[in-house]
Amino acid sequence: MITANEQSVLRKWTLDEFQEACNVYGNSWSKSFAEEWSTGGNWCNCWGEDHPIDAEDPKELDGLYQFLTEYFPHMTYLQMKALEKRIESTDTSESDWYGGVEYKERIELSYDVLMEELVGFGVLEIVNA
To answer: Residue 85: CB partners within 8 Å, gap ≥ 6?
Structure first.
């Protein structure tokens, strides 16, 4: 259900409806919008060879932006900036058996944090079924 006045648009969803809508664009298994990419490294093999791994271009949370465009197109620039500050970034690495290592970066926004922010902005209300 959607209600509107001159200042804002309020979407009323149950928790299940919110999560189902998120799952269309996000990762249902991790309950988040997430992307990961390689920032470089090297891989080695049993013959002593060492090969570089090129860094990939950084990614954005395209699924999150598609979700917001479809369901919350009236969000303001300042609301978007506040939401982007809640995106978590982590650096990880994976090592191979022969001494190589690949570095990765991951960005993520959980459904729970997104819901908290949208409710705080006054654009989402979670209702009982």
So the answer is: none
Task: Quote the pTM value.
Answer: 0.85
Distance CA 59, CA 33 (A): 12
b/e sequence 83-120, b meaning 16+ C-beta within 10 Å: beeebeeeeeeeeeeeebebebbebbbbbebbbebbee
Question: Across residues 29-50, what is the average pLDDT?
Answer: 95
Question: What's the pLDDT tens digit per position in 73-85?
Answer: 999 999 999 999 9
3-state class of 88 per DSSP? strand
Phi-psi region of 120 (alpha: psi -120 to 50; beta: other; left: phi over 0): alpha
For residue 9, what are its two tokens? 């648009």
